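Could you please consider the sequence and fold appended to this message?
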Amino acid sequence: MDTADFQDSARTALGDPQLRSNFRRAMDGLMAKRAAMFPDRDEWTRLRSLGAAVRARSLLNLPHLLEKLEERLTANGIHVHWAETVDQGNAIFKEILAQHDAKHVVKGKSMVSEEMHLNHALEEVGIEIIEADLGEYIIQLDHETPSHIIMPAIHKNKEQIARLFSQKIKDAAYTEDVDHLTGMARQVLRKKFANADAGVSGVNVAVAETGTLVLVENEGNGRMCTTVPKLHIAVMGIEKVVERLEEVPPILQLLTRSATGQPITTYVNMISSPRKADEKDGPEEIHLVLLDNGRSRVYSDPELRNTLRCIRCGACMNHCPVYTRVGGHAYPGVYPGPIGKILTPQILGLDVAGDLPHGSSLCNACVEVCPVEIPIAALLVRLRREAVGNGAKALKSAIPPKGAGQHRSRVESWVWWGWALAYRVPWIYRLTGLMLSRFGGLMPATIPLLKEWTSVRSKPRFASRTLHEMASSQEVPND
Protein backbone atom coordinates (compact mmCIF):
# COMPACT_ATOMS: atom_id res chain seq x y z
CA MET A 1 0.00 0.00 0.00
CA ASP A 2 1.23 3.49 -0.87
CA THR A 3 1.36 5.91 2.05
CA ALA A 4 0.27 8.65 -0.34
CA ASP A 5 -3.08 6.88 -0.55
CA PHE A 6 -4.13 8.37 2.80
CA GLN A 7 -3.42 11.95 1.76
CA ASP A 8 -5.06 11.56 -1.65
CA SER A 9 -8.07 9.65 -0.31
CA ALA A 10 -8.53 12.16 2.51
CA ARG A 11 -8.64 15.04 0.02
CA THR A 12 -11.18 13.14 -2.09
CA ALA A 13 -13.34 12.42 0.96
CA LEU A 14 -13.27 16.06 2.06
CA GLY A 15 -14.69 16.97 -1.33
CA ASP A 16 -17.63 14.53 -1.03
CA PRO A 17 -20.50 16.38 0.71
CA GLN A 18 -22.73 13.27 0.85
CA LEU A 19 -20.03 11.24 2.60
CA ARG A 20 -19.34 13.98 5.10
CA SER A 21 -23.05 14.41 5.79
CA ASN A 22 -23.49 10.67 6.35
CA PHE A 23 -20.60 10.55 8.80
CA ARG A 24 -21.52 13.74 10.64
CA ARG A 25 -25.05 12.50 11.31
CA ALA A 26 -23.88 9.03 12.36
CA MET A 27 -21.04 10.23 14.59
CA ASP A 28 -23.20 12.79 16.38
CA GLY A 29 -25.70 10.05 17.24
CA LEU A 30 -23.02 7.62 18.44
CA MET A 31 -21.32 10.23 20.62
CA ALA A 32 -24.64 11.18 22.21
CA LYS A 33 -25.55 7.55 22.94
CA ARG A 34 -22.16 6.83 24.48
CA ALA A 35 -22.34 9.95 26.68
CA ALA A 36 -25.79 8.85 27.91
CA MET A 37 -24.33 5.50 29.00
CA PHE A 38 -21.73 7.16 31.25
CA PRO A 39 -23.62 9.94 33.05
CA ASP A 40 -21.67 9.42 36.27
CA ARG A 41 -18.09 10.58 35.82
CA ASP A 42 -16.87 8.72 38.89
CA GLU A 43 -18.41 5.44 37.73
CA TRP A 44 -16.85 5.88 34.28
CA THR A 45 -13.45 6.52 35.84
CA ARG A 46 -13.65 3.45 38.09
CA LEU A 47 -14.92 1.13 35.36
CA ARG A 48 -12.37 2.45 32.88
CA SER A 49 -9.52 1.93 35.34
CA LEU A 50 -10.72 -1.62 35.95
CA GLY A 51 -10.91 -2.36 32.22
CA ALA A 52 -7.45 -0.91 31.65
CA ALA A 53 -6.05 -2.99 34.52
CA VAL A 54 -7.62 -6.18 33.15
CA ARG A 55 -6.14 -5.61 29.70
CA ALA A 56 -2.74 -4.54 31.02
CA ARG A 57 -2.55 -7.57 33.32
CA SER A 58 -3.55 -9.89 30.49
CA LEU A 59 -0.84 -8.50 28.22
CA LEU A 60 1.76 -8.72 30.97
CA ASN A 61 1.06 -12.48 31.21
CA LEU A 62 0.17 -13.02 27.55
CA PRO A 63 2.57 -15.89 26.70
CA HIS A 64 1.46 -17.88 29.75
CA LEU A 65 -2.23 -17.16 29.14
CA LEU A 66 -2.03 -18.26 25.51
CA GLU A 67 -0.50 -21.58 26.53
CA LYS A 68 -3.15 -22.00 29.23
CA LEU A 69 -5.90 -21.11 26.73
CA GLU A 70 -4.67 -23.70 24.25
CA GLU A 71 -4.47 -26.36 26.96
CA ARG A 72 -7.98 -25.63 28.22
CA LEU A 73 -9.56 -25.39 24.77
CA THR A 74 -7.96 -28.65 23.71
CA ALA A 75 -9.28 -30.33 26.85
CA ASN A 76 -12.74 -29.00 25.95
CA GLY A 77 -12.57 -30.55 22.48
CA ILE A 78 -11.72 -27.41 20.48
CA HIS A 79 -8.88 -27.62 17.95
CA VAL A 80 -6.32 -24.80 18.24
CA HIS A 81 -4.16 -23.57 15.35
CA TRP A 82 -1.38 -20.98 15.38
CA ALA A 83 -0.73 -18.65 12.45
CA GLU A 84 2.25 -16.31 12.41
CA THR A 85 1.20 -14.61 9.15
CA VAL A 86 -2.05 -14.02 7.28
CA ASP A 87 -0.91 -16.44 4.59
CA GLN A 88 -0.52 -19.17 7.19
CA GLY A 89 -3.92 -18.29 8.63
CA ASN A 90 -5.61 -18.52 5.24
CA ALA A 91 -3.85 -21.82 4.54
CA ILE A 92 -5.22 -23.24 7.80
CA PHE A 93 -8.76 -22.21 6.83
CA LYS A 94 -8.41 -23.76 3.40
CA GLU A 95 -7.08 -27.01 4.84
CA ILE A 96 -9.88 -27.35 7.42
CA LEU A 97 -12.58 -26.57 4.86
CA ALA A 98 -11.05 -28.97 2.33
CA GLN A 99 -11.03 -31.78 4.91
CA HIS A 100 -14.80 -31.28 5.34
CA ASP A 101 -15.44 -30.70 1.62
CA ALA A 102 -17.03 -27.38 2.61
CA LYS A 103 -18.03 -25.19 -0.32
CA HIS A 104 -20.51 -22.78 1.29
CA VAL A 105 -19.49 -20.66 4.31
CA VAL A 106 -21.33 -18.03 6.34
CA LYS A 107 -19.27 -15.54 8.33
CA GLY A 108 -20.06 -13.23 11.21
CA LYS A 109 -18.31 -9.88 11.53
CA SER A 110 -14.61 -10.27 12.25
CA MET A 111 -11.94 -7.59 11.82
CA VAL A 112 -9.20 -10.23 12.03
CA SER A 113 -10.70 -12.01 9.03
CA GLU A 114 -10.64 -8.65 7.21
CA GLU A 115 -6.98 -8.36 8.19
CA MET A 116 -6.42 -11.75 6.54
CA HIS A 117 -8.50 -10.88 3.44
CA LEU A 118 -10.13 -14.23 4.15
CA ASN A 119 -13.04 -13.79 1.76
CA HIS A 120 -10.75 -13.26 -1.20
CA ALA A 121 -8.49 -16.15 -0.18
CA LEU A 122 -11.40 -18.62 0.01
CA GLU A 123 -13.06 -17.39 -3.17
CA GLU A 124 -9.79 -18.07 -4.99
CA VAL A 125 -10.21 -21.78 -4.27
CA GLY A 126 -13.90 -21.88 -5.22
CA ILE A 127 -15.45 -21.51 -1.76
CA GLU A 128 -18.49 -19.24 -1.47
CA ILE A 129 -18.32 -17.09 1.68
CA ILE A 130 -21.22 -14.82 2.63
CA GLU A 131 -21.11 -12.07 5.25
CA ALA A 132 -23.94 -12.59 7.73
CA ASP A 133 -23.70 -9.27 9.56
CA LEU A 134 -26.06 -6.79 7.86
CA GLY A 135 -23.46 -4.04 7.52
CA GLU A 136 -20.83 -6.46 6.23
CA TYR A 137 -23.38 -7.97 3.83
CA ILE A 138 -24.11 -4.49 2.42
CA ILE A 139 -20.47 -3.68 1.73
CA GLN A 140 -19.83 -7.18 0.35
CA LEU A 141 -22.58 -6.57 -2.21
CA ASP A 142 -20.87 -3.31 -3.16
CA HIS A 143 -17.37 -4.88 -3.20
CA GLU A 144 -16.12 -2.53 -0.47
CA THR A 145 -14.20 -2.88 2.76
CA PRO A 146 -15.53 -1.81 6.19
CA SER A 147 -15.35 1.90 6.91
CA HIS A 148 -15.81 1.37 10.67
CA ILE A 149 -14.88 -1.54 12.92
CA ILE A 150 -18.33 -1.70 14.56
CA MET A 151 -20.62 -0.38 11.81
CA PRO A 152 -19.01 -1.38 8.49
CA ALA A 153 -21.57 0.39 6.26
CA ILE A 154 -21.86 3.58 8.31
CA HIS A 155 -20.73 5.63 5.32
CA LYS A 156 -23.92 4.77 3.42
CA ASN A 157 -27.39 6.24 3.91
CA LYS A 158 -30.66 4.40 3.35
CA GLU A 159 -31.10 5.78 -0.18
CA GLN A 160 -27.72 4.38 -1.22
CA ILE A 161 -28.50 1.01 0.37
CA ALA A 162 -31.92 0.93 -1.31
CA ARG A 163 -30.33 1.44 -4.74
CA LEU A 164 -27.72 -1.22 -4.00
CA PHE A 165 -30.29 -3.84 -2.92
CA SER A 166 -32.51 -3.17 -5.94
CA GLN A 167 -29.50 -3.74 -8.21
CA LYS A 168 -27.83 -6.68 -6.47
CA ILE A 169 -30.61 -8.76 -4.88
CA LYS A 170 -32.71 -10.78 -7.29
CA ASP A 171 -36.35 -9.63 -7.62
CA ALA A 172 -35.82 -6.89 -5.00
CA ALA A 173 -38.04 -3.85 -5.49
CA TYR A 174 -36.69 -0.39 -4.70
CA THR A 175 -37.73 0.76 -1.25
CA GLU A 176 -36.28 3.14 1.33
CA ASP A 177 -38.17 1.52 4.21
CA VAL A 178 -35.51 0.32 6.63
CA ASP A 179 -37.57 -2.64 7.88
CA HIS A 180 -38.19 -3.83 4.33
CA LEU A 181 -34.50 -3.49 3.45
CA THR A 182 -33.57 -5.54 6.51
CA GLY A 183 -36.17 -8.11 5.55
CA MET A 184 -34.64 -8.49 2.08
CA ALA A 185 -31.26 -9.27 3.57
CA ARG A 186 -32.82 -11.64 6.11
CA GLN A 187 -34.52 -13.66 3.37
CA VAL A 188 -31.24 -14.14 1.51
CA LEU A 189 -29.21 -14.95 4.62
CA ARG A 190 -31.69 -17.47 6.07
CA LYS A 191 -31.16 -19.70 3.04
CA LYS A 192 -27.40 -19.30 3.36
CA PHE A 193 -27.47 -20.30 7.05
CA ALA A 194 -29.56 -23.38 6.28
CA ASN A 195 -27.25 -24.56 3.49
CA ALA A 196 -23.88 -23.58 4.97
CA ASP A 197 -21.21 -26.25 5.33
CA ALA A 198 -19.27 -24.14 7.83
CA GLY A 199 -19.60 -21.00 9.92
CA VAL A 200 -16.83 -18.51 10.66
CA SER A 201 -16.78 -16.01 13.52
CA GLY A 202 -14.52 -13.62 15.33
CA VAL A 203 -13.88 -13.64 19.07
CA ASN A 204 -14.28 -10.63 21.36
CA VAL A 205 -12.64 -12.22 24.41
CA ALA A 206 -11.10 -15.63 25.09
CA VAL A 207 -10.96 -16.88 28.68
CA ALA A 208 -7.88 -18.93 29.54
CA GLU A 209 -9.28 -20.22 32.83
CA THR A 210 -12.28 -21.99 31.28
CA GLY A 211 -11.38 -22.26 27.60
CA THR A 212 -14.32 -20.07 26.59
CA LEU A 213 -14.75 -18.00 23.43
CA VAL A 214 -16.94 -14.94 24.02
CA LEU A 215 -18.74 -13.32 21.09
CA VAL A 216 -21.10 -10.33 21.39
CA GLU A 217 -23.55 -9.18 18.71
CA ASN A 218 -26.97 -7.63 18.14
CA GLU A 219 -28.42 -9.34 15.08
CA GLY A 220 -28.25 -13.04 15.93
CA ASN A 221 -26.11 -13.76 12.88
CA GLY A 222 -23.14 -14.65 15.08
CA ARG A 223 -25.21 -17.22 16.92
CA MET A 224 -26.46 -18.65 13.62
CA CYS A 225 -22.90 -18.91 12.25
CA THR A 226 -21.67 -20.69 15.37
CA THR A 227 -24.56 -23.10 15.95
CA VAL A 228 -26.32 -24.01 12.68
CA PRO A 229 -23.42 -25.35 10.54
CA LYS A 230 -21.76 -28.57 11.66
CA LEU A 231 -18.34 -26.91 11.48
CA HIS A 232 -17.40 -23.69 13.30
CA ILE A 233 -14.06 -21.93 12.75
CA ALA A 234 -13.28 -18.98 15.01
CA VAL A 235 -10.40 -16.57 14.41
CA MET A 236 -8.85 -14.03 16.76
CA GLY A 237 -5.73 -11.98 17.34
CA ILE A 238 -3.46 -13.40 20.03
CA GLU A 239 -4.00 -10.35 22.28
CA LYS A 240 -7.72 -10.98 22.96
CA VAL A 241 -7.20 -13.38 25.87
CA VAL A 242 -7.97 -12.71 29.57
CA GLU A 243 -7.18 -14.98 32.49
CA ARG A 244 -10.44 -15.40 34.41
CA LEU A 245 -14.13 -15.45 33.57
CA GLU A 246 -14.80 -12.73 36.14
CA GLU A 247 -12.74 -10.34 34.01
CA VAL A 248 -15.20 -10.56 31.13
CA PRO A 249 -18.13 -8.48 32.56
CA PRO A 250 -16.19 -5.19 32.92
CA ILE A 251 -14.81 -5.62 29.41
CA LEU A 252 -18.30 -6.20 28.00
CA GLN A 253 -19.75 -3.23 29.92
CA LEU A 254 -17.10 -0.95 28.48
CA LEU A 255 -17.30 -2.45 25.00
CA THR A 256 -21.05 -2.27 24.44
CA ARG A 257 -21.59 1.09 26.11
CA SER A 258 -18.67 2.67 24.25
CA ALA A 259 -19.44 1.09 20.89
CA THR A 260 -23.19 1.39 20.38
CA GLY A 261 -24.48 3.16 23.50
CA GLN A 262 -26.16 0.01 24.85
CA PRO A 263 -25.95 -1.34 28.39
CA ILE A 264 -25.43 -4.77 26.83
CA THR A 265 -25.75 -6.29 23.37
CA THR A 266 -28.72 -8.43 22.39
CA TYR A 267 -26.64 -11.61 22.31
CA VAL A 268 -23.66 -12.68 24.40
CA ASN A 269 -22.40 -16.03 23.13
CA MET A 270 -20.06 -18.10 25.30
CA ILE A 271 -18.64 -21.11 23.48
CA SER A 272 -16.62 -23.68 25.40
CA SER A 273 -16.97 -26.91 23.44
CA PRO A 274 -18.56 -28.59 20.41
CA ARG A 275 -22.04 -30.06 20.71
CA LYS A 276 -22.26 -32.65 23.45
CA ALA A 277 -24.23 -35.91 23.25
CA ASP A 278 -27.21 -34.54 25.22
CA GLU A 279 -27.39 -31.21 23.37
CA LYS A 280 -29.79 -30.54 20.49
CA ASP A 281 -27.84 -27.90 18.59
CA GLY A 282 -24.37 -26.55 18.09
CA PRO A 283 -21.46 -27.51 15.82
CA GLU A 284 -19.99 -30.97 15.85
CA GLU A 285 -16.47 -29.57 15.45
CA ILE A 286 -14.87 -26.26 16.47
CA HIS A 287 -11.50 -24.81 15.47
CA LEU A 288 -9.79 -21.66 16.73
CA VAL A 289 -7.15 -19.91 14.60
CA LEU A 290 -4.88 -17.63 16.65
CA LEU A 291 -3.28 -14.98 14.41
CA ASP A 292 -0.07 -13.14 15.22
CA ASN A 293 0.55 -10.99 12.10
CA GLY A 294 3.09 -8.71 13.73
CA ARG A 295 1.53 -8.60 17.18
CA SER A 296 4.52 -10.31 18.79
CA ARG A 297 6.75 -7.53 17.48
CA VAL A 298 4.37 -4.91 18.91
CA TYR A 299 4.30 -6.85 22.18
CA SER A 300 8.08 -6.78 22.49
CA ASP A 301 8.10 -3.02 23.13
CA PRO A 302 6.80 -2.07 26.61
CA GLU A 303 5.36 1.24 25.39
CA LEU A 304 3.93 0.19 22.02
CA ARG A 305 2.45 -2.91 23.69
CA ASN A 306 -0.36 -0.66 24.93
CA THR A 307 -1.72 -0.74 21.37
CA LEU A 308 -2.80 -4.34 22.02
CA ARG A 309 -5.11 -3.34 24.88
CA CYS A 310 -7.74 -2.33 22.31
CA ILE A 311 -11.16 -4.01 22.68
CA ARG A 312 -12.36 -2.77 19.25
CA CYS A 313 -15.19 -0.54 20.48
CA GLY A 314 -14.65 2.20 17.88
CA ALA A 315 -15.16 5.07 20.35
CA CYS A 316 -11.87 6.66 19.31
CA MET A 317 -13.12 6.85 15.71
CA ASN A 318 -16.47 8.34 16.66
CA HIS A 319 -14.76 11.23 18.46
CA CYS A 320 -11.83 11.79 16.10
CA PRO A 321 -12.04 15.10 14.15
CA VAL A 322 -10.03 13.55 11.31
CA TYR A 323 -11.91 10.25 10.95
CA THR A 324 -15.36 11.87 11.21
CA ARG A 325 -14.53 14.05 8.21
CA VAL A 326 -12.72 11.66 5.89
CA GLY A 327 -14.24 8.28 6.83
CA GLY A 328 -12.66 4.87 7.08
CA HIS A 329 -11.89 4.28 3.40
CA ALA A 330 -9.30 7.07 3.40
CA TYR A 331 -7.01 4.94 5.57
CA PRO A 332 -4.68 2.30 4.13
CA GLY A 333 -5.05 -1.05 5.86
CA VAL A 334 -8.01 -2.58 7.67
CA TYR A 335 -8.19 -0.49 10.82
CA PRO A 336 -9.18 3.18 10.37
CA GLY A 337 -9.25 6.07 12.80
CA PRO A 338 -6.93 6.62 15.77
CA ILE A 339 -6.46 2.91 16.53
CA GLY A 340 -5.56 2.35 12.88
CA LYS A 341 -3.00 5.14 13.02
CA ILE A 342 -1.06 3.30 15.70
CA LEU A 343 -1.81 -0.33 14.78
CA THR A 344 -1.52 -0.30 10.98
CA PRO A 345 2.00 1.21 10.86
CA GLN A 346 3.19 -1.43 13.31
CA ILE A 347 1.62 -4.31 11.37
CA LEU A 348 2.31 -3.17 7.79
CA GLY A 349 5.48 -1.25 8.65
CA LEU A 350 6.37 2.42 9.02
CA ASP A 351 7.89 2.26 5.54
CA VAL A 352 4.41 1.49 4.16
CA ALA A 353 2.10 3.40 6.52
CA GLY A 354 4.46 5.82 8.23
CA ASP A 355 2.35 8.83 7.23
CA LEU A 356 -0.66 7.63 9.24
CA PRO A 357 0.62 8.81 12.66
CA HIS A 358 0.84 12.31 11.15
CA GLY A 359 -2.87 12.27 10.21
CA SER A 360 -3.84 13.52 13.66
CA SER A 361 -4.29 16.84 15.41
CA LEU A 362 -3.16 15.27 18.73
CA CYS A 363 -6.30 16.78 20.30
CA ASN A 364 -6.49 13.84 22.76
CA ALA A 365 -10.23 13.23 22.13
CA CYS A 366 -9.47 9.56 21.44
CA VAL A 367 -7.47 9.28 24.67
CA GLU A 368 -10.28 10.77 26.74
CA VAL A 369 -12.90 8.29 25.49
CA CYS A 370 -10.79 5.13 25.21
CA PRO A 371 -12.38 2.66 27.67
CA VAL A 372 -9.07 0.91 28.40
CA GLU A 373 -6.86 4.01 28.66
CA ILE A 374 -4.67 3.49 25.59
CA PRO A 375 -2.33 6.52 25.39
CA ILE A 376 -2.99 6.93 21.67
CA ALA A 377 -1.56 10.44 21.35
CA ALA A 378 1.71 9.43 23.04
CA LEU A 379 1.99 6.39 20.76
CA LEU A 380 1.38 8.57 17.69
CA VAL A 381 4.26 10.82 18.73
CA ARG A 382 6.45 7.78 19.39
CA LEU A 383 5.71 6.36 15.93
CA ARG A 384 6.36 9.72 14.29
CA ARG A 385 9.75 9.73 15.95
CA GLU A 386 10.45 6.13 14.95
CA ALA A 387 9.50 6.80 11.32
CA VAL A 388 12.17 9.48 10.93
CA GLY A 389 14.67 8.21 13.51
CA ASN A 390 17.60 5.87 13.27
CA GLY A 391 15.53 2.83 14.17
CA ALA A 392 17.19 2.83 17.58
CA LYS A 393 15.64 0.61 20.22
CA ALA A 394 13.66 2.27 22.98
CA LEU A 395 15.08 -0.31 25.38
CA LYS A 396 17.86 -2.84 24.95
CA SER A 397 15.30 -5.65 24.95
CA ALA A 398 12.92 -3.94 22.52
CA ILE A 399 12.69 -4.54 18.77
CA PRO A 400 12.24 -1.35 16.70
CA PRO A 401 8.87 -1.06 14.93
CA LYS A 402 8.80 -2.59 11.47
CA GLY A 403 10.18 -0.13 8.91
CA ALA A 404 11.57 2.27 11.54
CA GLY A 405 13.69 5.06 10.09
CA GLN A 406 12.39 4.63 6.54
CA HIS A 407 11.02 8.19 6.41
CA ARG A 408 14.29 9.69 7.60
CA SER A 409 15.55 12.49 5.33
CA ARG A 410 19.19 13.52 5.27
CA VAL A 411 18.22 17.07 4.27
CA GLU A 412 15.70 17.35 7.11
CA SER A 413 18.25 16.01 9.58
CA TRP A 414 20.77 18.69 8.48
CA VAL A 415 18.09 21.38 8.76
CA TRP A 416 17.29 20.42 12.35
CA TRP A 417 20.99 20.17 13.15
CA GLY A 418 21.41 23.73 11.85
CA TRP A 419 18.40 24.91 13.84
CA ALA A 420 19.85 23.43 17.03
CA LEU A 421 23.24 24.98 16.30
CA ALA A 422 21.72 28.44 15.79
CA TYR A 423 19.96 28.25 19.16
CA ARG A 424 23.18 27.16 20.87
CA VAL A 425 25.50 29.79 19.40
CA PRO A 426 24.36 33.42 19.94
CA TRP A 427 26.18 35.00 16.99
CA ILE A 428 24.82 32.38 14.55
CA TYR A 429 21.32 32.96 15.93
CA ARG A 430 21.62 36.73 15.37
CA LEU A 431 23.05 36.30 11.88
CA THR A 432 20.29 33.86 10.92
CA GLY A 433 17.62 36.24 12.20
CA LEU A 434 19.17 39.13 10.30
CA MET A 435 19.34 37.17 7.04
CA LEU A 436 15.73 35.94 7.34
CA SER A 437 14.43 39.42 8.10
CA ARG A 438 16.10 40.78 4.95
CA PHE A 439 15.81 37.91 2.50
CA GLY A 440 13.37 35.34 3.96
CA GLY A 441 10.43 36.79 2.07
CA LEU A 442 12.19 36.12 -1.23
CA MET A 443 12.13 32.33 -0.76
CA PRO A 444 9.53 30.71 -3.08
CA ALA A 445 7.02 28.41 -1.38
CA THR A 446 7.82 25.65 -3.87
CA ILE A 447 11.44 25.03 -2.87
CA PRO A 448 11.99 21.52 -1.45
CA LEU A 449 12.60 22.79 2.08
CA LEU A 450 9.21 24.55 2.20
CA LYS A 451 7.08 22.54 -0.23
CA GLU A 452 5.77 19.99 2.29
CA TRP A 453 5.18 22.68 4.90
CA THR A 454 3.33 25.06 2.59
CA SER A 455 1.19 22.27 1.11
CA VAL A 456 -1.02 22.52 4.21
CA ARG A 457 0.08 25.84 5.75
CA SER A 458 0.67 29.43 4.74
CA LYS A 459 4.23 30.40 3.85
CA PRO A 460 6.01 31.96 6.85
CA ARG A 461 6.14 35.77 6.89
CA PHE A 462 9.28 37.21 8.43
CA ALA A 463 9.40 40.52 10.27
CA SER A 464 11.39 43.29 8.60
CA ARG A 465 13.50 43.78 11.74
CA THR A 466 14.89 41.32 14.25
CA LEU A 467 13.93 41.37 17.91
CA HIS A 468 17.39 42.67 18.79
CA GLU A 469 17.03 45.54 16.32
CA MET A 470 13.62 46.50 17.70
CA ALA A 471 14.97 46.34 21.24
CA SER A 472 17.94 48.56 20.35
CA SER A 473 15.66 51.13 18.72
CA GLN A 474 13.81 51.41 22.02
CA GLU A 475 17.12 51.67 23.88
CA VAL A 476 16.47 48.39 25.69
CA PRO A 477 19.73 47.05 27.20
CA ASN A 478 21.04 44.06 25.24
CA ASP A 479 21.88 41.85 28.24
Residues 263 and 465 are 62 Å apart (CA to CA).
